[in-house]
Amino acid sequence: MRGTFLCHGIVWNAAGPRLALASPDGIPAAVDVREGTLLGFRILEAGRFCLGSHRVQGPQARQHVPCPLQVPAERGGQCINCFLNDDLRFLHDAHRSGAAPEGLRAYLAQPHWLYVATFASGTSKVGTASDLRKRLRLAEQGAVAARYVARAEDGRIVRVLEDMVSQQTELTQAVRSAAKLTGLQAPRSLAELDDINADHARTVRNLLARVELEGFAAVDQTWELPGPGRRVIGSDSRTAYPLELAAGTHGLLLEALLGSIALIRTVEGGPAYLADLNGLKGRRIELGPYQSQLPPVQVSLF
Q1: How far is CA 140 from the centre of its chain?
Q2: Could you give the CA distance from residue 179 to residue 163 in angstroms, rounded to a whole number?
Q3: What is the pLDDT of residue 297?
Q4: In sequence order, what DSSP letters do the residues of 79-109 get, joined into one string?
Q5: Where are the domains of the chain?
Q6: pLDDT tens figures, 127-149
Q7: Spatial separation of the C-alpha atoms in residues 284 and 298, rounded to whole Å
Q8: Which of 263, 193, 187, 226 is nearest to 33 (CA)?
Q9: pLDDT per residue over 93-130, tens digit each?
Q10: CA 109, CA 111: separation in Å to the nearest integer?
Q11: CB 75: neighbour CB atoms within 10 A?
Q12: How do residues 233-253 score in pLDDT, each as one tens digit?
């Protein structure tokens, strides 16, 4: 695929991870980012641009609306106009305020799962996933170990539980992408990460046992790390890609993906690096036969 696009970042679906794109007139496109994909591109302009907004019609239906102004992003990947017109802006506060558009209410009415996810460094978080994206959500997050600790009747109840867990335990509700990448440069063993996750999940289930709230049931289900993620964390490569994705030209030969973090080489048989492809989110790029111009390696004489 060639052409100019606005990059919407890495998304996961049943077919695997894809780099989501949109043409200048807003038509969606995507590039598979599986093993063997050669992703060549150049950054067209500095800065991040608005990704538009969403209209939610129900659990499986939503419409993306491109930014009519195509202006730089101001808040969370959006301009202020698109932010104010985005149904998803109500998502994380609807259980407190009760305010949500009708389509989002229909989305929230489906069953949701409460999970505990642990990343390569051992950092852990509590989070939620809709029933339809139960497993894909954790793959998209870049978790290494995870367990589902509750199934709730709807998205309101699960977010009440999420708030309670983050208030009464050491678990946060977010882990930054930069921290995930740093963790992969010095990861703990899979066995250690699973033990950490199991301990946190046990703490949360013990907490849930004392909760006087209807509409949920505690569960004990283990999520399985997909094969590509195992290849990333099992790789001997611990070096971050030495170029800034926000500028210049790049040619990335993809080997595996963990969340949005790719194990890549710039030439076949060359050294492997770790690169967070969500660094392209909001960037205007041109796809083509571009290559990475890596800085020279300084070799010590002593």
Answers
A1: 4
A2: 22
A3: 60
A4: -HHHHHT-GGGGTTTHHHH----HHHHHHHT
A5: 1-46+240-302, 110-225
A6: 999 999 999 999 999 999 999 99
A7: 33
A8: 263
A9: 777 777 777 888 888 899 999 999 999 999 999 999 99
A10: 7
A11: 12
A12: 999 888 999 999 999 999 999
List, in sequence order, the alpha helices (H) in the chain. Answer: 80-84, 94-97, 102-108, 136-141, 155-168, 177-185, 190-208, 227-234
DSSP state for residue 254 in the 8-state scheme: E
Both structure tokens of 262 = 């790719």
Q: DSSP 3-state assignment of 17? A: strand
Q: Hey, which residues does 9 pair with through a beta bridge?
A: 20
Centre a 10 Å sphere on the Cβ of residue 298 and count the other Cβ atoms it contains.
5
Q: Look up the pTM and report it.
A: 0.91
Evaluate if residue 216 carries a pLDDT over 60.
yes
Q: Which pair of structure tokens corresponds to residue 140?
A: 């998209």
**pLDDT tens column, 264-291:** 999 999 999 999 999 999 999 999 999 9
DSSP for 40-76, please give it: EEEE-SSS-B---EEEE-SSS-EEEE--SS--B--BT
Which pLDDT belongs to residue 104?
Answer: 85
Angle, helices 155-168/190-208, rounded to nearest 10 degrees? 110
For range 139-160, the mean pLDDT = 97
Instruction: Give the pLDDT score at 230.
Output: 95
Residue type, 97: S
Which of 210, 208, 197 is CA-nearest to residue 171?
Answer: 197
Residue written as token pair 């949109």: 22
Residue with tokens 């036969």: 289
Start-to-end C-alpha separation, the chain: 47
- What residue has token string 């104010």? 84
